[in-house]
Amino acid sequence: MRKGYITVFLTLSLTLILSLVFVVIEGARISAIRMKFECVSDIGMNSVLAEYHREMLEQYDLLFVDTSYGGGSADIGNTEAHLKNYIRMNLRPGSNKAGIGMGRTKDFLAMDAGNVQIGKYSIASDNQGAVLKRQVTDYMSDYPVGAILEKLNLGVSEMESYGLETKDVAGERHGYEARIDEIGLPTREVEEGVYEEVPLDNPADIANATRSSGVLNLVLEDPSQVSAVKVSLNDYISRRTRKQGTGLCSEAVSVSGKPDELVFQAYLFEKYGHYGKELDKSLLKYQIEYILAGKDTDWQNLEQVAKRLLRWREAANVIYILTDSAKIAEAEAMALALTAVCMCPELAEPVKYTILFAWAYVESLQDVKTLLAGGRVPIYKTAADWKTGINSIKNVRGSLAQDDGGRGLNYEEYLRIMIFLQNQDTRTFRAMDIMEMDIRRTAGNGRFCLDGCFDAYEADMSVVSGFGYRYEMTRHYGFY
Q: Over the stretch 62-80, which tens digit does the pLDDT of each residue have?
């Protein structure tokens, strides 16, 4: 009878013990499912970021994931599929992409990927390009921009103090020309009853006649060497309808800081080429000039920048020459000689000013020629900086000399001032045009689009278990 009591006792005890063991095992299963879900979610989301676009990193030191993955259409659904596959493959290492077992049949967790949805993602062009510029600011955090920005601020301040961007030199010149027309030229009888005006032979007219020739044709030794590349601008991000993400990632901003416009401008001159500093990889050779002018050919972009340089230099040189008593005296002597010949001394004063304006124009062409040759030109000149003589207005092309010396600012520093003065959004999207142009030249990226690229995303994920469990999780990952 004693053995019988022991058997019943053991049976009752084992029932309790086994129940406890099974509870512990099931608890271990639940904990393991949760822990593995955490691990494979982190692995999966990091794996998505590991598919960053190699050319964006190589050429621009920026990290973005291209949702087209080298295919034809950029879509966040492609990334969702990649993420789900990474989760599934890490949950069941012995399975294929469809989740079908390949060998092992016993699985303590029996987990598989459920729904995967990316609800938030920051596209490069979101917030008028702020997502891209946030990364630029992060990349440039150790770049010594202080000295460059200090010089830029000095140049901008000097230009603004003289009003070079707004001064209407052409209007002033036309005013003096109108005064000459109002006074009129005397006439002489060439034959009975036939009269003609006595010619003034103002050399300023010779100089002004070259204004329609185009700046590059006047200042370059060999204009045929200018790049002839032409692009179709409607193919690029500044002209097309853009895809939208969910905007700038607040977590990224809290870690790396807000986008900085001045830093972005410094970045442009580190990564982009311009006349005299062209990049082999580039489609358009004068990239900074494109950002400024937005034309579809290298020639037009360089011509527009050269015209603006000429306008600035002409404004500065007019301001200076009207304070130089020696040059004013030279112009006055020439004007008196001209008006004496045509017997109209009342024209001397307006003629003098047209000569001074023409002289400042030729000096400005010399300045542009110097800048494009790699030389320097100060924003405001002294007598020692003046290069041309008064007779240069009679032979404009022949009077311009090749010069790569001098003091003041060089061509790139004038470009920096132009970039600083440019509209922020225009500058940003044209810079992104250049990125698309150059990346599309690389293998497998013929249809690359920046508005198909993201740098941060938030995913809602779930897993299911063959033992009846389902868990959901939200994770946020990005390059910051």
A: 999 999 998 878 999 999 9
Measured in Å, how far apart are the chain's first and last C-alpha atoms?
A: 76
**Which tokens in the block code for residue 175?**
């005013």
Beta strands in 380-469 (DSSP E): 409-410, 453-465
Residue carrying the six token digits 């404004």: 315
Token pair in block for residue 451: 């508005």
What does the pLDDT read at residue 102? 43
Q: What is the pLDDT of residues 245-256, one digit of tens each?
A: 999 999 999 988
Q: Give, as one character, the DSSP assignment of residue 307.
A: H
> Quick one: pLDDT at residue 447?
93
How far is Cα 369 from Cα 290, in angstroms, rounded to an integer?
20
Indicate the angle between helix axes 169-183 and 348-372, nearest 10 degrees. 150
Separation of alpha carbons 315 and 162, rounded Å: 9
Residue of 81, 76, 78, 49 lying closest to 65 (CA atoms): 49
Per DSSP, the three-state class of 121 is strand
Token pair for 137: 């600011």
Task: Dig out the tokens for 126 from the structure.
Answer: 């979101």
Cα–Cα distance, 294 to 300 (Å, whole number): 9
From CA 46, how far away is CA 477, in angstroms rounded?
Answer: 8
3-state class (DSSP) for residue 238: coil
Tally Cβ neighbours within 10 Å of residue 432. Answer: 22
pLDDT-based confidence at residue 434 (cuts at 50, 70, 90): very high
**At 64, is the secondary structure helix, strand, or coil?**
coil
Distance CA 334, CA 208 (A): 17
